[in-house]
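WARN  no MSA supplied for this record, continuing single-sequence
INFO  ligand: GLP
INFO  echoing inputs
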Amino acid sequence: MEVIIRTDAGSGCMLAAKMISRLVRTKPGCVLGLATGNTPRPMYQELVRMHKEEGLDFSRVSTFNLDEYVSLPPGHPQSYHHFMDINFFNHVNVPRAKIHIPNGMAADIPAHCQEYENQIRSAGGIDLQVLGIGLDGHIGFNEPSSALSSRTRIKTLTPKTVEENARHFKDAAQVPRHVITMGVGTIQDARQCLVLAFGERKSGVVAKMVEGPVTAMIPASALQLHRSAIAIIDEEAARQLTMIDYYRWVYANKPEWQKCE
Ligand code: GLP
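INFO  complex generated
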């Protein structure tokens, strides 16, 4: 996995936005895999700015979000539909018909999950999947012990994730216990994965993801098997990496054509 260490979250998100904009410019009909959470918010802000000020055109782009809470309607303020609307979709020109987010209100969840997988395939597969990481190593909502070949399906959140995400709700009792999430295998099928993690509190799990053994106990560690996974992290999140100097060396010596500055 390639590790890019930036001074802070802001510059990490700017770099992620640059990578996405480069893809959108070179492949206008690309398929983006998108993530929610606090981490990528500044990345979306920068993409919105690029759209408004630099004419970055999303009119042919398709998007697939990683996950959604079961039982929250799209208009619910804590739903990931709502998050994506207020942080991104309401401000750019991705056509509504090309936006895909799992439907937490689906009557037949297994059929809906299968259909989601089919839609990804019909769109030509995901070109670039943006990911955050949970404190327990989850990507999307693939909690520890998730099958590393899993596909889109219903999952039960761990009590730790319920507690962690309670900050977005009135209290923990309001946090749905179930979610629909792309599987680890679905994520692995993306042509490129871009994981963002910032801040000291993520440093332990970042070290496990990058340098620990590949294990279902840290689903993000499966990205070590991905042919093109990049982790953009800040100095604080990098603290527990043992090969930190090497990652800096690699980036400093990157061929110009590989850089996205
Ligand atoms: C949630 C989401 C993940 C996200 C994680 C971290 O559980 N399902 O996709 O990566 O939280 O969130 P944050 O970026 O707010 O730390």
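The longest strand covers residues 192-197.
INFO  checksum written, moving to next record
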